[in-house]
Amino acid sequence: MSSTFDQVATIIAETCDIPRDTITPESHAIDDLGIDSLDFLDIAFAIDKAFGIKLPLEKWTQEVNDGKATTEQYFVLKNLCARIDELVAAKNAGT
Amino acid sequence: MHLEYFQLIDRIVDINIGAKTITVEAQVPQHNTIFEGHFPGYPIMPGVLLIEAMAQTSGWLLISLMKFERMPFLAAVKEAKMRGFVAPGELLTIDASMVYEGSGYAITEAKIKVGGKLRTNATLTFSHIPFPNADLRGHMDAVAKRIGFPQQAITND
Questions:
Q1: Which of A27, B18, B66, B77 could form a disulfide with A32 if both were Cys (CB 3.0 to 4.6 A apart)?
Q2: Contact (Cβ atoms closer than 8 angstroms) between residue B6 and residue B52
Q3: What's the CATH number for B3-144?
Q4: Of A37, A55, A58, which to mutate for an interface test with B (greatest number of B Cβ within 10 Å)?
Q5: Complex ipTM value
Q6: Does B100 sit within 8 Å of A54, measured CB to CB?
Q7: Domain segments of chain B as ranges
Q8: Given pLDDT bands bounded at 50, 70 and 90, which one contains residue B156?
Q9: Which residues, in sequence order, are bridge partners of residue B93?
């Protein structure tokens, strides 16, 4: 988890020019860090490359729009990192 | 090209679904009001229109890869380089390839060549959504027919 967070925080800092020390596991990418949907595409691309996964952004967005999930579940960084860890584990398990 | 209608692509030369590449041709008009202002006495194609031509080329590649079910929209332009002027009357050969397919977005690299020499290139990001209405879908079908979109490219794979 901590390793995943460090990587994600570094990606966000470099992609969006946000001071690294302002990014915490509790930060909400949209509400706290001010990352918009276009910048998040760059972040998703960098995360996909770094972890060898494909973040299901469309599915997440649809769930939020349908009221089946909150943005906090996917865009608070500790939760985003947990999703990334799940996707990496699924990939490694061959599922 | 029909610049007034923002139709920058004349003909699809090749689409390779497996390789995720496309090649198109576009004939820059000899005369157009754009050249009266850009620039008086020294007419050249505006760089933004060359970027749009690369975006439309990439767009046709993405539409074919998504089997005409989704519409791509240009979201970001990176590393666009205008390496040489494009003059009225020149024939452009535009190549694009998809370099990454994300969830709801895709990244392409595109190049414009004239006589085999590179004039412009860029890395482009597109977001894509299901066709928002039947009008747009119908328009894209008509344009596909006009520029010779090979329907077999998406039906025989």
A1: A27
A2: yes
A3: 3.10.129.10
A4: A58
A5: 0.86
A6: no
A7: 3-144
A8: low
A9: B25, B113
